[in-house]
Design a protein that fits this description.
The protein has 125 residues and is α/β, with parallel strands linked by helices. The protein has a single domain, classed as Response regulator (Rossmann fold, 3-Layer(aba) Sandwich), CATH 3.40.50.2300. It has a five-stranded parallel beta sheet with strand order 2-1-3-4-5, with helices on both faces. The protein is globular and about 30 Å long. The two termini are 21 Å apart.
Amino acid sequence: MADELILIIEDNEKNRKLVRDVLQGYRTVESETAEEGLKLVAGKSPDLILMDIQLPGMDGITALKQLRADAKTKPIPVIAITASAMTHNRATMLAEGFDGYQTKPLSIRDFLEEVRRVLDARGKP
């Protein structure tokens, strides 16, 4: 757990702070926009990306498609974080190519379990 780098792409400062606080023990880097987040991915090579879906400018789904289109960033797991808790959204987000899905407000226990599950699954078929 100690050395894994997690990129948080979230436009709301309070949500970023909550996620940063909950992820104590992990290294984190943050971005308010998908565009800035994509630049950080290139320079930082995170182990996991937490991607808000509703972002100013480019949305999280479009950003994910750009990550998946690049051979260097394609294998980085991405968890969708969204305020939309409709039941069909989980299936839709996973079908878009996200590796996990969490709704806001976050359930801290479920969120940490999902982060660990996705990190542990890296590189496995």
